[in-house]
Design brief:
Helix content is 24%, strand content 26%. The longest helix has 14 residues. The protein is globular, with a radius of gyration of 22 Å. The N and C termini lie far apart (51 Å). The N terminus is likely disordered. It comes from Paenibacillus yanchengensis.
Length: 374
């Protein structure tokens, strides 16, 4: 632990976080060797200033709601970054209530994960519709891939069009690619010859990094919020590389009869319980092993072969994951739907014949039926 009597200040001069040297992934971390710096700034601020590198900081939901309330006291543009692959899991549906009169720009990241044949205009219209259904009013929607540098020029154009000389607050959940996108904005849109400001949100002690712009305003990088109902938050870190796709996914199409099941690795199971023969398309990480079987054999198969023949998570990893909950959903005839599992992806129900389906997933993970994305 950093000793207070060895510090000139007990908070970071860049972001205001309480300084500590025990947990590198938490706000305010700095190595003990960095105590000789003047001013003293945390490792995260140091990396932004000297290497144009923003690193993720995470806070709990109560702290995040405090943070959102403080944004409403400002005159700013709010940029909400969401993950297209986990749209409902990463969307802050009540954001407009906290932003008040501040405009919200919705930046949808990770479009590089979808096949090239997908019509981006359709995706953008779908996003606008879903955001509206969630009660989120936005001034614009921008699709991009921060990692692949796709559509980033549209992000900058949207910032210029909507900022109107104001500060920019960037908000989002964990694992949405917020830091990657901020790093690109820093490189293209910021004057980092200036020192990081010591200002903080009025009335709060939450940390944030103020990144200076050429006109004297700031991009404010806020901590990422953790939503516990995302699969990414309940699996061990050793499984994330298998769960999260890092390149374009190859959709998997299965023709199923009623009474058949699909195991999605050992992390989830899809059952086609009732309905006419039809096809289902899986938009999930291609690193997950898919196994088809009869529904009547599924329970025993899982008991005998989970973590082994059925694929990851391994038996050791499964020990850290909540047991399954069964979700039963009826698809109405004449509708086009996705069965969405937060942090995993979705199963597109290709027929409008109607069906009764069930999804088994770790307890607490969000599972919903939605209008088809693609």
């Amino acid at each position: 632990m950093v000793k207070q009597d060895n510090l000139q200040h007990n908070t970071c001069a860049g972001c205001g976080a309480a300084l500590q040297s025990e947990k590198q992934s938490e706000p305010g971390y700095l190595p003990v060797a960095a105590l000789e710096r003047s001013p003293i700034i945390c490792q995260r601020c140091f990396r932004i200033k000297h290497y144009n590198e923003a690193a993720s900081v995470v806070i709990d939901q109560d702290q995040f709601l405090q943070l959102l309330g403080s944004i409403g006291e400002t005159d700013s543009l709010v940029v909400h970054i969401v993950d297209l692959f986990d749209f409902e899991g990463s969307l802050i549906s009540g954001l407009h209530r906290f932003a008040r009169n501040n405009p919200i720009l919705l930046v949808v990241n990770k479009i590089d994960l979808l096949p090239k044949s997908i019509n981006y205009n359709r995706i953008r219209n779908w996003v606008q519709q879903q955001a509206k259904l969630q009660g989120l009013r936005v001034v614009d929607v921008v699709l991009c891939s921060a990692k692949r540098n796709i559509g980033f020029d549209h992000v900058i154009t949207a910032l210029d069009r909507n900022r109107d000389g104001r500060d920019v607050y960037i908000v989002g959940a964990t694992n949405v690619g917020k830091s990657t996108l901020i790093n690109r904005i820093i490189n293209d849109y910021s004057d980092l010859d200036n020192e990081l400001t010591t200002s903080q949100y009025p009335g709060t002690t939450l940390d944030a990094v103020y990144i200076p712009l050429d006109d004297g305003k700031f991009i404010i990088d806020t901590p990422g919020i953790v939503y516990a109902n995302r699969l990414t938050e309940v699996v061990p870190a050793s499984f994330l590389a298998t769960l999260l796709p890092d390149k374009m996914i190859k959709p998997l199409v299965y023709q199923l009869n009623a009474g058949q099941s699909l195991f999605l690795g050992s992390i989830a199971r899809f059952d086609f319980v009732e309905g006419k023969r039809q096809s289902f398309t899986l938009y999930i990480s291609n690193a997950l092993h898919i196994h088809r079987t009869k529904l009547e054999r599924a329970d025993q198969l899982y008991a005998d072969h989970r973590g082994e023949m059925l694929g990851r998570p391994s038996l050791a990893e499964l020990e850290e994951i909540p047991t399954w909950t069964r979700h039963s959903l009826r698809v109405k005839p004449g509708t086009q739907n996705d069965l969405f599992v937060s942090g995993l992806g979705w199963i597109q129900i290709n027929s409008d014949l109607g069906a009764l389906v069930e999804l088994h997933a770790p307890k607490g993970v969000k599972v919903i039926m939605r209008d088809s994305m693609v």
